[in-house]
Write a structure and sequence with these properties.
Blueprint (H helix, E strand, L loop, with lengths): L5 E11 L23 H17 L10 E7 L2 H13 L5 E4 L9 E6 L4 E9 L3 E2 L5 E2 L4 E8 L2 E9 L7 H25 L5 E6 L7 H7 L12 H6 L5 E3 L2 E3 L2 E5 L10 E7 L20 E2 L2 E2 L9 E6 L11
Parallel strand pairs: 1-2, 9-10
Antiparallel strand pairs: 1-17, 2-4, 3-4, 5-8, 6-7, 8-9, 10-13, 11-12, 14-17, 15-16
Helix pairs in contact: 1-2, 3-4
Length: 324
């Protein structure tokens, strides 16, 4: 197998907000007058840093990521501003976005290079949640995108499951319900064609060993279990976010099994992108991702999450095992 020819990434951008107050969402803290004193200068710096992360993740020969899944994006204008930053660096991405009912106003989105990924269709799917009082709990929509990657049909599902706010156990039912929703989207695609190649990426707010991920992995109706190579990374102690001196691998990319055997797109490598420039070098959080804020103190970092990635290739030689 030759070099990977397509890199796909997922990145939780940690509150990529513009500076304007949206009266329909709880974004007041992320304004110049808000708790975080979020100014135009800080916003522009954040856009530049996110774009620089994508540049650093390019494959050899300036081969930028083909598709980028994102979460914690406030709105379409933020994506347009990021798109312009990327254009200044010499690469064109198209945008897929829709405002979700999330109370903070954060959404999932997709950027893709139109010369590599030919968009066929996309659709956002609402997730209805309610608390113990039967009050609706608003959360992010789940995005399903279908298109052709170098002539091969590729379906991508982008999610940002409910957080652990209020405690892991208390919030666990919300993520389990999100998992069943994601699994139903996978099964819907498989019902159309059992040979469909499907990738599910996102911030799941759970680790590869948690029950919600098992729900997503284990297909029953169509008998197709999703592969999760990131389980191996997790067992090695590799994470995408650190909390209370412990690494979590909340950011994951899962696949239908045909990425390991297909004559079409094949999995070559998967990993967490954690270079030193995105890592805190001093202080009590040394070794953690270098985030934008520590509490309300501005640290001018990138995100509290590292991005995750997968490299794909078209088979030109006998199959070799993926690298981890």
């Amino acid at each position: 197998m030759g070099q990977a020819n397509s890199r796909i990434i997922f990145y939780n951008c940690e509150n990529l907000f513009d500076v304007y107050d949206d009266p329909l969402t709880k974004d007041d803290e992320r304004t110049p007058q808000g708790k975080f004193k979020w100014t135009k200068e800080k916003y522009q710096s954040k856009l530049y840093q996110v774009a620089e992360v994508f540049k650093a993740m390019a494959l050899p020969h300036n081969n930028w990521p083909s598709v980028i899944g994102l979460c914690e994006i406030e709105n379409a204008q933020v994506l347009s501003d990021l798109q312009n930053k990327l254009l200044q660096l010499g690469v064109k991405y198209n945008i897929i976005h829709q405002d979700s009912p999330d109370q903070r106003g954060i959404d999932v989105a997709l950027l893709y290079r139109p010369n590599i990924y030919n968009l066929l269709h996309y659709e956002y799917h609402n997730l209805y949640l309610s608390n113990h009082k039967s009050e609706r709990k608003f959360t992010r929509d789940q995005l399903v995108v279908s298109g052709f990657m170098n002539g091969q049909l590729l379906h991508i599902i982008v999610v940002h499951w409910p957080s652990r706010s209020g405690g892991q156990s208390r919030s666990n039912p919300f993520r389990i319900k999100a998992a069943y929703k994601s699994r139903s989207l996978v099964d819907s695609l498989l019902s159309l064609d059992a040979a469909n190649q499907i990738m599910v990426m996102g911030d799941f707010n759970d680790d590869p060993v948690n029950y919600s991920i098992q729900v997503l992995e284990n297909g029953k109706k169509y008998g197709d279990t999703l592969c999760n190579p990131m389980r191996i990374l997790y067992k090695k102690g590799i994470g995408s976010i650190a909390h209370h001196d412990r690494w979590h691998l909340f950011d994951q990319i899962l696949f239908t099994a045909n990425f390991l055997t297909s004559k079409n797109l094949q999995l070559k490598k998967i990993g967490v992108f954690n270079p030193s420039f995105m890592t805190q070098q001093i202080g009590p959080y040394k070794g953690y991702p270098l985030r934008s804020f520590s509490g309300t103190s501005y640290t001018n970092g990138y995100s509290d999450h590292y991005p995750v990635y997968v490299d794909l290739t078209e088979p030109l030689a006998p199959r070799k095992p993926p690298q981890y």
